[in-house]
């Protein structure tokens, strides 16, 4: 089972993703976002704490921006939450927010392809959570457009390797 769960912020996608593996005896929860976000933002810290409190105690949490490596090393079922925070970490690392696209995009596309390969090659059940950001207005600022475009590409690449794609809206799950 390889599943991509997408939806808007606070749609219930993480809760649903976790419910898909809650019966598994071994679960690795991969949090691929930049760890400094928790320290810098009290709202982010509260959200992370809320997510952690929902997880069963026997789940192992791995915090790493090396998403392909974390997927490959994971034991048991895998939950990745989420691709949006991973893309943010990659854009930060590549200093892409203000840089010329040609300077960093090829490397990010390679990293996205590596994540998709890791999902494809995983022999464990894997559930990847992501944000759906392409359904709204065109962002006013370049950084918003860069994030939207790169996350959209990552979502497509990972979805192509999944058996199922689910869209969560207002806590309701639609199979795509």
From TrEMBL:
InterPro entries, A to Z: CobU/CobP, P-loop_NTPase
Keyword Ubl conjugation: no
Pfam families referenced in this protein's UniProt entry, alphabetically: CobU
Pathway the protein contributes to: Cofactor biosynthesis; adenosylcobalamin biosynthesis; adenosylcobalamin from cob(II)yrinate a,c-diamide: step 5/7; Cofactor biosynthesis; adenosylcobalamin biosynthesis; adenosylcobalamin from cob(II)yrinate a,c-diamide: step 6/7
EC number: 2.7.1.156, 2.7.7.62
CDD domains, per the entry: CobU
GO molecular function: kinase activity; nucleotidyltransferase activity
Top enzyme category: transferase
Catalytic activity annotation: adenosylcob(III)inamide + ATP = adenosylcob(III)inamide phosphate + ADP + H(+); adenosylcob(III)inamide + GTP = adenosylcob(III)inamide phosphate + GDP + H(+); adenosylcob(III)inamide phosphate + GTP + H(+) = adenosylcob(III)inamide-GDP + diphosphate
Sorted UniProt keywords: ATP-binding, Cobalamin biosynthesis, GTP-binding, Kinase, Nucleotide-binding, Nucleotidyltransferase, Transferase
Function text: Catalyzes ATP-dependent phosphorylation of adenosylcobinamide and addition of GMP to adenosylcobinamide phosphate.
Family: Belongs to the CobU/CobP family.
Protein name: Adenosylcobinamide kinase
């Amino acid at each position: 089972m390889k599943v991509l769960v997408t939806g808007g912020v606070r749609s219930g996608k993480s809760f649903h993703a976790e419910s898909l593996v809650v019966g598994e005896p071994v679960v690795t929860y991969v949090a691929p976002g930049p760890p400094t976000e928790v320290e810098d933002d009290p709202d982010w810290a509260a959200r992370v704490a809320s997510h952690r409190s929902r997880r069963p105690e026997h789940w192992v949490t791995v915090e790493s921006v090396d998403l392909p490596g974390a997927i490959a090393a994971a034991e048991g079922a895998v939950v990745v939450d989420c691709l949006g925070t991973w893309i943010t970490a990659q854009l930060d690392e590549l200093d892409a927010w203000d840089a010329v696209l040609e300077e960093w995009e090829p490397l990010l596309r390679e990293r996205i392809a590596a994540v998709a390969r890791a999902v494809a090659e995983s022999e464990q059940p894997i559930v990847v959570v992501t944000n759906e950001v392409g359904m709204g207005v065109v962002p006013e600022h370049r950084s918003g457009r860069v994030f939207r475009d790169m996350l959209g590409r990552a979502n497509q690449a990972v979805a192509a390797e999944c058996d199922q794609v689910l869209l969560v809206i207002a806590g309701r799950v639609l199979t795509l």
